[in-house]
Amino acid sequence: MSDPIHDALVLFQEAIDQESDPEASRALFERVLAIQRANGGVLESDDVVVPLEATLMNVASLSQTLRDWPRLRDAAAELRAATPFQGAAHTMYSIALKHLGDRDGAAKALERAFAVAPAEVNPRHEQACQLLAAGDRAGALDAIAAAMERGAEPEALREDEELAALHGEPRWEQLLGRENHVACLVTLLDEDHADFAETAPDPDDDAFSEWVTDDETIERFEDAVDLAERLLDAADVASVPLLPADARGDEILDIAQCDPTQVRAIEALVRAERFWHAIPFLLVLGQHHVPSLNPEDARDRLGVP
Length: 305
Description:
Blueprint: H1 4-17, H2 22-38, E1 43-44, E2 49-50, H3 52-65, H4 69-82, H5 87-99, H6 103-116, H7 122-133, H8 137-149, H9 154-158, H10 170-176, H11 178-199, H12 208-212, H13 215-234, H14 260-271, H15 279-287, H16 295-302
Antiparallel strand pairs: 1-2
C-alpha cells in the first residue's frame, strides 16, 4: 500500500526540481497540498519536516509568477490566517487584490504587512507601485526611500515595470544611486552590529564558546556575511587597486585610491568587530583584500579609524 506522506515528500522534491517550469511546479505543489490537508497538514519523515505553510508559500509564489491573481489571493489569504505575523503573506495578498481591482483592500493588506514586518523590503516596494498607480509620485518615491533604507537592491527596483514612470526623475536616481545604496547598507550594518553586540559575551568569558556556536548566533553571522558581501559589491571595492605584497606576502587594497563611498563601506566593516568572530565574515573581507587578522590590525594597515 502506498504511503501518502512518502508520496507527498517525493512530490515536494519533484516540484522544487521543476522550478524552471512554474506551471508544472505549481501543479505538483497543489498535489502535495491536497495530501497534507488530508493527513493533518505537516509532512514529516526521519529527517524532513514540511509544514503546510511551506507548500502554501510555494503555491502563492508560483501563482504570482504565473500572474494567476485569483489563486494568489486564495493561497495568500490562507497563509495570512496560518502565519499572521509573516509580512510576505500580507504583501502577496495585497498584490493579488491590486490586480483584481480592489485598491482599498490592497492598501489595508499592506498596512498589516508594515505592522507585522516593519523591517521588510517587499511591502515598501509594493507600496511604491500602488502609490504610483494611484498618481501619487511623491508618495511612491517616499516608499522607495523606505525600501532602500531597509536594504532594497536598486536593480530590483529598476527592473520593476510598474515603476518605469519614475525613471529619470532626479530623486529616483539619487535614491537608487551608488552613494545612497552604500549609505543605507552601512546604516543597516551598524544597527545590526549594535544590536548583536548587546548580547555578545566577551571572548574571555566562559559563556563565549557556547554563544558563538548557538544556532541563533550562527544565523546572525550568516546575515552579517550576506550584508558584508552586498556592501562590498555596492561600493565596488573589487575595483580598488592593490598595494604591492607586504612583508607578510599580503596584497591589500590601497585605501588612498578609494573614493569616499568605498572608504565609508570599509570603515563600517572594520568597526563591526563582533562580526569578526565569524570565519566566513573574515573570508569575505580577505577576498576583497581587506586585512582580516583582527580589527586593530586592519585599522593600522589601512589607516582608518
